[in-house]
Amino acid sequence: MGLRANPTQRQRRLGIELRRLRLSAGLSVGEAAAAAGLGPPHLGHIEAARTAIPEVKLRALTDAYGCGSEPLVDALATMSRATGRGWWSDYKRHMDAQALDLAELESTSVSCRSFQWLYVPGLLQTPEYVRALIESGGPNTDPTLRDKYIEFRLRRQHAVLSGTLRFHAVIHETALRMQFVPPDVMRDQIEHLVRMARLPHVRIQLLPFKNDVRPPIFSTPFLVFEAAVPELGTVYVEQPVTSPFLNEQQHLGGFAELFDDLQKLALPTIAPRSECEFPSRRDSLSLIQHLLYTL
Length: 295
Prior knowledge:
Layout: H1 9-25, H2 29-36, H3 40-47, H4 55-64, H5 70-81, H6 97-108, E1 111-116, H7 127-137, H8 143-161, E2 166-172, H9 173-177, H10 183-197, E3 202-207, E4 222-226, E5 234-237, E6 245-246, H11 249-265, H12 284-294
Parallel strand pairs: 1-2, 2-3
Antiparallel strand pairs: 1-4, 4-5, 5-6
Helix pairs in contact: 1-4, 2-3, 2-4, 4-5, 7-8, 10-12
């Protein structure tokens, strides 16, 4: 079997975690390989995600590393057994590897916290909003590719929002005031946010222009994914260069803290009222109602 040329994010993460455990145990590649009955080059390829590792060898390695967390070892074993095939596999010809990796990551996470300041988060976008974004960015986009992109986005939404993953979005007011989509599309999109906020596992907050406290410094949208075991959490940063997936614990802790700060500065979550009433407080729904009035 040849070596992988383009490993997935899950495969890279498995290799990273195994290398991290080895280094924490103070073992060289040769010492660790001998303990698991592997050749040093083979272990090097495993850590670089260029080849797979059988579960029995993985467990031999974690024993040699003195890893005392059974949930972590089981989670790593699950990652090693995974085939990477899911609903997203139908789109390998149309979507880039980054989008496919994101869909797989969403399928294995227990919660996702999202911050967006320019666009409505992808998991909350209407089909018309997605279409308008694509057309405003490039009117000559191949219609077939455009339709596949929209279809992929909608399947992502269904997979996540119809499941058990907890989704919490903080959206800057800027995203709802941008005028690169028609007013009727934006109106429907804003109303859609209120509908999505009614789902029991979805929380939506708006971060308004007017705020008495300066928000923490930020420059790019991001997603913080929580895994079943804390060690395997991941940050996804929306940027055009280098890997958008951050796995170091200091990154995870830093972005989680940043999201918590943004959440505290944002207005209270959208909680649709059961009956008509005058707004008695400044919250996300009140801002939504104002934005709809101005469209």
